[in-house]
Input
Amino acid sequence: MNCAHRPDRRRALSGLAALACAATLPVTGRAAPGRGLERAIPATGEMIPAIGMGTWLTFDVAPGAERDARLAVLREFFAGGGAVLDSSPMYGYAEAALGELVPKARPVKVFNATKVWTPTRFLGVKQMEESFSHWGVKRFDLMQVHNMLDWETHLATLKAWKADGRIRYLGITTSHGRRHDALEAAMKRERLDFVQFTYNLAEREADRRLLSVARDRGAAVIVNRPFDGGDLFDTVRGKPLPGWAAEIACANWAQVFLKFVVSHPAVTCAIPATTNPMHMRENIGALAGRLPDDALRRRMAADFDRLR
Output
């Protein structure tokens, strides 16, 4: 789950708007013509854009003018090559907002991902059926157990629904850097198509075990809170972009933060969230240009730590 960008984000961004780079992407991903960086889902080889969109807080809006304003965010997302939309019943009106607005945005492709967040099989099935209704879809691309709540019970249902074609992929999520030990144990015990957890320049605990376990077990990784709930922008407020940002075609700090995340070879997709169409344009711009290699990733982490 992801927080909206902070109001002072604009002051944290540099004016380097014309950066470009023609270097070849590393083997961690590939650039698809007209779509930008894509990553393969290990279970099938299906390619999805490496930058998606979260909806926690940002799309929890009732019908009316405020919800209507989110259509511009979706249009920027899809125009920039995005496809993965992540939500949850926990996020209030978010699922219903997507169900209303996504058709109006007329995307070429959507990868619908939501979650089940309630105990017991009975309530889980009821909640997931409601999600189908809110989104207005007959099949979900991905259904996840939110924050591992009664995950063993729900996983049995998801396996049956996947076999029946009601969902295409199944997974488990955590957030805010919690329950890493439990998620690692679940990954080692079960074959999961996707896992989702927090990873960013400030919270790099996943580097220790989760990312390598996910890669070894063939699980796609969705990264939530790639901006640490907006706190990363507080850290760099008033700071110019480092010189190495030009090497990876980053025109702003948002793209620096996102490229650090998606350049990890185990990461499939990052899902930042925003209510601002211009911020969405900046986020989705991270699909363009080359990614940092291992040496630059280490330098990015070291430089960020010095700013904290």
Q: What stands out?
A: Confidence is low (pLDDT under 50) at residues 1-8, 10-28, 30-34. The radius of gyration is 18 Å. Residues 7 and 230 are 9 Å apart (CA to CA).
